[in-house]
Design a protein that fits this description.
The chain is of the alpha/beta class. Helices cover 27% and strands 24% of the residues.
Length: 373
């Protein structure tokens, strides 16, 4: 039986931020991750992915991106950033943490490599952990190919094909645009709930989070109204394209449901306006190669890409401890101690989420270091 002062579960941005902050305070820490490499969730995303937030708000604690990095780092640049600074940490990859239980004086982690005891545990497995796929009637008989957006990489397989993208968050919109500009014959984007949309770049090319982050601290009614006016000014009224402005604004919806707005470039909006991406109603059922939509429209796509989000999947890990809310989100998503020595970090979607997570990681490290004396 191994025993440590601190164990961090997850080797993504949040987990490595916590581990680095702890090491900076002189605390020995072990990081466990189910994947073969650090930053696995970033490695598995589509090739064209880049950060929605500016590099100045999105680096590891006290460790900036190299000079010359673009304002919005690419997927590969984010992976390289995490990988470079994770060197020297005690990271146990290919180690699945299956359950966390209380024990006298701390916690016991049941893992695929055996039990591990720790005084403090920081869970940083991520808000977007396990891909979610809806179960539409007839889906298992679909004769085309169905995949989750986490499996999409680039346009190579889709040239000359018809593709239905289900979902209109940041990933859904960006994948639809990637397909529409990459030789695909036809791209539909299915929308159930019209999204709040904000531009990645604000005035003068500044990252949108320069404005969104201070707005986050305003009363929601005021922040939502500013966002609504900014959207109309930048994009115009998209109602005729199937994307009306929702009654509930981005800050109110984020606070109520933990749902982030769709953050995109203006090129995506232009592709919707010029018809390269056709907005349609969501699927109701599948029948062979036919997808029936809620309004009765019948489509015949070769591929269906489900940008339908992720689940936290924390129930089997800590569900028995009473630390999750009704949505399966930690009751203390920002690093607060939800039980003596148990913390979660990286579970609050908000503007400049990575930067905020790194600040919280430093605070967690200070609190743990002080408690250990």
């Amino acid at each position: 039986m191994s025993e440590y002062s601190v164990v961090v579960v997850g080797a993504g941005f949040a987990g490595i931020s916590a581990a680095l902050s702890l090491r900076d305070r002189g605390v020995k820490v072990v990081v466990l991750d189910r994947a073969e490499q650090v930053a696995s969730s970033w490695r598995m995303r589509y090739d064209a992915l880049k950060l929605n937030t500016g590099k100045q708000f999105s680096h590891l604690p006290r460790r900036r991106y190299p000079c010359g990095t673009p304002t919005f780092p690419s997927r590969d640049q984010v992976v390289e950033h995490i990988e470079r600074h994770a060197g020297g940490l005690d990271i146990r990859c290919a180690t699945m943490v299956q359950r966390i239980d209380r024990r006298p004086g701390g916690w016991r982690l049941r893992t695929s490599a055996g039990d591990i005891d720790a005084r403090h545990v920081v869970v940083a497995t991520g808000y977007d952990h396990t891909p979610y796929m809806p179960e539409w009637p007839g889906i298992h008989g679909f004769t085309g190919e169905l995949l989750h957006s986490s499996e999409y990489r680039n346009t190579t397989r889709y040239i000359g094909k018809r593709v239905l993208v289900v979902g209109c968050g940041s990933s859904g919109m960006e994948i639809a645009h990637n397909l529409a500009t990459g030789g695909t014959a036809k791209v539909w984007m299915a929308v159930r709930t019209p999204p709040n949309i904000m531009l990645r770049s604000g005035p003068a090319g500044l990252p949108g989070d320069v404005i969104a982050t201070p707005l986050y601290h305003f009363p929601q009614r005021i922040a939502d109204e500013v966002a609504r006016r900014a959207r109309l000014h930048a994009m115009g009224d998209l109602t005729r394209y199937g994307l009306p402005i929702p009654d509930e604004g981005p800050f109110s919806r984020g606070a109520r449901l933990g749902v982030a707005p769709a953050l995109v470039d203006m090129d995506v909006i232009n592709a919707i306006k010029d018809g390269a991406i056709e907005v349609v109603k969501p699927p109701e059922s599948f029948d062979g190669g036919t997808v029936s939509l809620l309004d009765g429209t019948r489509l015949h796509p070769n591929f269906v890409v489900c940008a339908t989000g992720y689940r936290r999947a924390l129930e089997s890990l800590v569900g028995h401890l009473g630390v999750l809310d009704e949505r399966g989100v930690p009751r203390g998503p920002c690093g607060e101690s939800v039980a003596d020595g148990l913390r979660f970090v990286g579970f609050l979607p908000r503007p400049s989420q990575i930067g905020y997570t790194c600040k919280r990681a430093r605070r967690i490290a200070n609190e743990i270091a002080n408690s250990l004396g």
